[in-house]
Design a protein that fits this description.
alpha+beta; five-stranded antiparallel beta sheet; 44% strand; ATP Synthase, domain 1; 2 domains; elongated
Length: 137
């Protein structure tokens, strides 16, 4: 059995990551799950959270996702993300501006648009929290 699994991360309109990795931990809808070589096949929806990519027995990369789907085979883990942001390269100031704009959108939204505005705010706040957590790790 190989000692790596191919991990692919696809966001709308682009392939963000495609490399063999030791382990990838994905925020599944029913909880985080780790994918190693030889994993049983599965398909899962994703919740908002952070994908952790392991190389050399340590987290090498953290990627925020706002939802999507994951397909796992014994050789591969493919994530189709609604949105993906590499936390190592994320710009804190722009994320804070996004949170501020989303808060203003919630305040200005009429009843028809309120749910979408609240959802957008929850994602931007989760991204900021993930950035804060990644900075502490």
């Amino acid at each position: 059995m190989a000692d790596t699994v191919e991990f692919e991360l696809v966001a709308p309109e682009e392939l963000l990551f495609s490399e063999p990795v030791e382990l990838v931990v994905v925020p599944g809808a029913e909880g985080d799950f780790g994918v190693l070589p030889g994993h049983s096949p599965l398909i899962s929806t994703l919740r908002t959270g952070v994908i952790a990519v392991y190389e050399n027995d340590a987290v090498n990369r953290r990627i925020f996702v706002s939802g999507g789907f994951a397909e796992v085979t014994p050789e591969r883990c493919t994530v189709l993300a609604d949105e993906a942001v590499a936390l190592e390269t994320a710009d804190r100031a722009s994320i804070e501006e996004r949170v501020k704009a989303d808060r203003e959108a919630v305040d200005a939204a009429d009843e028809a648009d309120k749910d979408n505005a609240v959802s957008a705010l929850a994602v931007s706040e989760a991204l900021l929290a993930a950035l804060d957590t990644a900075g502490q790790a």
